[in-house]
Amino acid sequence: MSVTTDETVIRSEAAGPVPAGKPQRRGFFAAGLHIPYAMILPAVIAMVGMLAYPLYRLFDLSFQNVNRYAYLVNPALAKYIGFDGYTKVLGDSEFWDVVLRSICFTVELVAASMVLGMLFALLLNRVSPWVRVVCITVMMFVWAIPALVTGTVFRWLFASNGGVVDYLWFLVTGDESVKHYDWFADPTVGLYAVGAAVIVWGALPFLVIGLYAALTQVPKELMEAAKLDGANAFQAFRHVTVPVIKPFLMISTALSFIWDFQVFAQIFSLRNTSPEPGYWTIGTFLYEKGIVASKYSDSSVISIAMILLMLAVLVFYIRQMLKIGAQDR
Amino acid sequence: MTVVDHKPAPAVAAAPKVKAKARATGRSSAATWIWNLLGLGFALVMAFPIYWMIITTFKTNKDLIAQDPTFWPSSFSFESYKTVLNDTEFWPSLQNTLIITLGAVAMGLIVGFLAAIGVARFNFRGRSFFIVTMLVVQMVPLLALIVPLYVVMNNAGMTGTLVGVMLAYLVFTVPYVVWTLRSFIVNIPAELDEAAMVDGCTQWGAFFRIILPLTLPGLITTGVYSWIQAWNEFIVANTLLATGGQKTAMAWLTFYATTPTRGADYGAQMAGALLVSLPVIVLFVFFQKKVSAGLTAGAVKG
């Protein structure tokens, strides 16, 4: 391996000598130090321009008073108000209501979709191949429907006039009074029952198919050994299946958290583009404040709170991903 | 990454054979039938909203406004589709979506592929930092960036333009493409492109004959995924295009559903929703296995 003078300098600065026996550049374009930098440059520019700079502007805005569109058009009006924006938003009980609602809703969604996903994956593991093909085909279609559309479909399914769910409920109970039940009148029912149904329905295909694929990797011998040792079905699941599928279980839980915490389109379309305050989770709240009400600075504070809440939970996940990623090389 | 990304797809494909054997030795057929019925029940519940969506588009007005829902239309009508197709904003918004999606996928793939080769084939200072950043970046909620993105685009004079939206989509396409393609390229032995060059290929020759063909499945996976993301994205497109009079199909759909004349026309709303989702459904059905494997690899969704 030929080491250029340039590289020697860079190396000694970084982490001492070049690791022996691990060639630096091999195969494609095995020459030129600047090449890798040139290759990642477009990506770096894109990330700085579309992410880092907006993030900087996010912090910048959160310390300003830009709460009307006029301020945005005429920057001279904007001024720095320090932490006033933070005290205003964080001192607002509505903000905390929304945060609490988001957390409860996310916990409900993640728990429901993981438990249901696991149960249906186990079910797929038991059924005949043709039933499995039917289930997977159906789930592929569900997976492909845009989130915005699923909200619209469920709004119609749960409509108080001509809605199917009411009607089915009436067919089962025979009670005329439930026929025109308004699911959306009480946001608690509307969000935690109907909203959750939309989101879990949309999330199940990924979880069921992923978990099922993970389950097929559980060695049959291990299961049989557990049965021989007198383990019941639950014990075998707990001590044999779970440890084997743990990596996917963790990744899918983290992903569910990421998607469910920032959920927006489903609620937005479920409530016909104008969700009532009782339906505001952090995503919809951000949209109502930031875009609809033009409160750019207030919503920046909310955005920062959202990012921090999310990252706090995800530190665990990131560490896990890095461990898995480290196995590549 | 290798642990997670490539295995799910083959497992789905290989499973039936394995299962058939296991069933023959183990479970009774009566029990299997109970499980089958449960499985079909599950499929029925999952499929029902889609069935309802499709059946609604063919219903006549009489069925649509009925107090009790009709599970099968009394007669089929194409009125809903006529209404949608005659909407003057339908085709332009669909065209905008197509342009944005194609642009976002092309830009994301080119930028991401280059960077993926960079991190997979070279060891350079800042490499791990770059990879870790790409991973963390995927967790920043797009929704949290919407206001500053609007401000930045507004300052650059790009609100109301399709290019602005394409660029904004790089936030989610590039990290995903880099992260996923990286694991594909890492798995191509460097000896292969060395051998090609020993055999007289130029560096570009080695790229086009070795790296590009072997990464093609990865490019398709990430391309399809980026396509779905960009096509279905609503909030960024809606916000950035709010001032320019342009709309994407998703934005058209929500406006369509809320206009006073269309608000109650569920048949037309469903027809519109179905037509707008169709390009994604078709793509998904074609590339189903690749997409499910790619999603677990890249660790993001909208």
UniProtKB/TrEMBL annotation, chain A:
It comes from the Bacteria. It is a multi-pass membrane protein. Its main location: membrane. It is found in: Cell membrane. The chain crosses the membrane at residues 35-56, 98-123, 130-158, 189-215, 301-319. InterPro entries: MetI-like, MetI-like_sf, UgpAE/MalFG_permease. Residues 99-319 form the ABC transmembrane type-1 domain. It holds the Pfam family BPD_transp_1. PROSITE patterns: ABC_TM1 (PS50928). Keywords: Cell membrane, Membrane, Transmembrane, Transmembrane helix, Transport. Belongs to the binding-protein-dependent transport system permease family. This is Sugar ABC transporter permease. It comes from Kitasatospora terrestris. The lineage of its organism: Bacteria, Bacillati, Actinomycetota, Actinomycetes, Kitasatosporales.
Automatic annotation (TrEMBL), chain B:
It is found in: Cell membrane. It holds the Pfam family BPD_transp_1. The chain crosses the membrane at residues 33-54, 98-117, 129-151, 163-185, 206-228, 266-287. Residues 94-287 form the ABC transmembrane type-1 domain. Its main location: membrane. Keywords: Cell membrane, Membrane, Transmembrane, Transmembrane helix, Transport. It comes from the Bacteria. It is a multi-pass membrane protein. PROSITE patterns: ABC_TM1. Belongs to the binding-protein-dependent transport system permease family. This is Carbohydrate ABC transporter permease. It comes from Kitasatospora terrestris.
